[in-house]
């Protein structure tokens, strides 16, 4: 493994503006593309509401203005209202990222009273039966439909989030129309990023090039049609284009993640890096974590870069791609992201996206402790 050079000494790292607060890994759904780590945090290890309140105050002092309250399913936290109120008190905008399961009128009204500003609802498919099959939970589509209606009635901004893969990409047009009929303001169509459970299911979830081309065309059509009414976001599938994504807007540059047990990470998947030794908010103040911890400095800026990134004119734009993907595909997080066509490891990605003709992909398995996917 390449030992990265330390980041260039910087008197003042950039300030973060966003915090992904993973309140719990517990979830009523079992999505096969879940990016949560394979080893989920125990409920008994979760930060308390008082600890989250402290994290949110410190985050605000650091410059954070926006937090995604996520999971797992954050509605499983009975003290979610206290956490929302703490964010509101600290002046941090809150967005609840939820599957919709467990949201009723009383809960939404309590969250709204606590200061909740917006909701992002996940959907797995435009058809109820297929949605429930992918989510691994009966009646979950009906719960989402009810949740969407409640949020609209409460007058909160509502976004739809769809993770796209081989099993739903051909219905992207129907998904956009579903969001429209539910009155959403924004639809995020995010091609699966392969981390955690999604990485284990990669062979089953990877779409074909033909599927992607058709979906892109459909999204373009709807984007023009909905211009000025619904924002349509297409998160590019970086395995297919030979272009690395500017992951997280750069390592330790604009946002941070705090996991249910208080581990602070420069990105949600960074717990997969074996030698990162991430700090914990129970042990260190957040400003130390952001400004001075070795984990946040490790891949900040460009001084750590190896291979073609080191001299590439795009290195300030894409930051060498994704460290977690580089590690997942090469075993070395400091290598150029193999999604980039200039990477000496790009053939690894090509082999995944252009499999031998006639090979049938395996079935995915749902996120459940002990589940073992087939490997192609
Ligand atoms: Fe980006 Fe590195 Fe590829 Fe250049 S070589 S385009 S910096 S990933
Ligand atoms: Fe960790 Fe991209 S997901 S750097």
Automatic annotation (TrEMBL):
> Which pathway is this protein assigned to?
Cofactor biosynthesis; pyrroloquinoline quinone biosynthesis
Q: Domain Radical SAM core, which positions?
A: 13-229
Q: Which InterPro entries match?
A: 4Fe4S-binding_SPASM_dom, Aldolase_TIM, Elp3/MiaA/NifB-like_rSAM, PQQ_synth_PqqE_bac, PqqE-like, Radical_SAM_PqqE_MftC-like, rSAM, rSAM_sf
Q: Which UniProt keywords apply?
A: 4Fe-4S, Iron, Iron-sulfur, Metal-binding, Oxidoreductase, PQQ biosynthesis, S-adenosyl-L-methionine
Q: What molecular functions are annotated in GO for this chain?
A: 4 iron, 4 sulfur cluster binding; cyclase activity; iron ion binding; oxidoreductase activity; S-adenosyl-L-methionine binding
Q: Which PROSITE patterns match?
A: RADICAL_SAM
The UniProt record gives the binding positions of [4Fe-4S] cluster as 27, 31, 34
Q: Kindly list the biological process annotations in GO that this record carries.
A: pyrroloquinoline quinone biosynthetic process
Q: What is its EC number?
A: 1.21.98.4
Question: Which SUPFAM superfamilies does UniProt cross-reference here?
Answer: Radical SAM enzymes (SSF102114)
Family per similarity comment: Belongs to the radical SAM superfamily. PqqE family.
UniProt-listed HAMAP family: PqqE
State how it assembles.
Answer: Interacts with PqqD. The interaction is necessary for activity of PqqE.
Q: What is this protein called?
A: PqqA peptide cyclase
Supply the source organism for this entry: Streptomyces phaeofaciens
Q: Which gene encodes it?
A: pqqE
């Amino acid at each position: 493994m390449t030992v990265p050079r330390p980041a260039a000494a910087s008197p003042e790292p950039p300030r973060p503006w966003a915090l992904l607060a993973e309140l719990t890994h517990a979830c009523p759904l079992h999505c096969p593309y879940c990016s949560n780590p394979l080893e989920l945090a125990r409920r008994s290890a979760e930060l308390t509401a008082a600890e989250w309140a402290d994290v949110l105050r410190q985050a605000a002092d650091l410059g954070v203005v926006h937090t995604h309250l996520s999971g797992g399913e954050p509605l499983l936290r009975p003290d979610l209202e206290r956490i929302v109120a703490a964010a509101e008190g600290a002046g941090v905008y809150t967005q609840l990222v939820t599957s919709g399961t467990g949201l009723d009128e009383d809960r939404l009204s309590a969250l709204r009273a606590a200061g909740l500003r917006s909701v992002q609802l996940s959907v797995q498919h435009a058809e109820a039966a297929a949605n429930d099959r992918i989510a691994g939970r009966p009646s979950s589509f009906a719960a989402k439909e009810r949740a969407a209606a409640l949020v609209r009635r409460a007058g909160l901004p509502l976004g739809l989030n769809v993770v796209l893969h081989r099993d739903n990409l051909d219905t992207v047009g129907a998904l956009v129309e579903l969001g429209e009929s539910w009155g959403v303001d924004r639809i995020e169509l995010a091609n699966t990023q392969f981390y955690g459970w999604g990485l284990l299911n990669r062979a089953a979830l990877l779409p074909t090039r033909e599927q992607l081309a058709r979906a892109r065309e459909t999204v373009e059509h709807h984007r023009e049609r909905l211009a000025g009414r619904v924002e349509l976001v297409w998160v590019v599938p970086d395995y297919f284009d030979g272009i690395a994504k500017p992951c997280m807007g750069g390592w330790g540059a604009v946002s941070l993640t705090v996991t249910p047990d208080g581990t602070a990470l420069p990105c949600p998947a960074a717990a997969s890096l074996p030698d990162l030794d991430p700090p914990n908010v129970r042990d260190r103040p957040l400003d130390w974590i952001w400004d001075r911890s070795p984990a946040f400095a490790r891949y900040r800026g460009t001084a750590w870069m190896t291979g073609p990134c080191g001299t590439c004119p795009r290195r300030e734009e894409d930051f060498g791609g994704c460290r977690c993907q580089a590690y997942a595909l090469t075993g070395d997080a400091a290598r150029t992201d193999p999604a980039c066509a200039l990477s000496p490891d790009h053939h690894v990605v090509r082999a995944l996206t252009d499999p031998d003709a006639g090979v049938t992909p395996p079935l995915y398995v749902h996120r459940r402790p002990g589940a073992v996917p087939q490997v192609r």
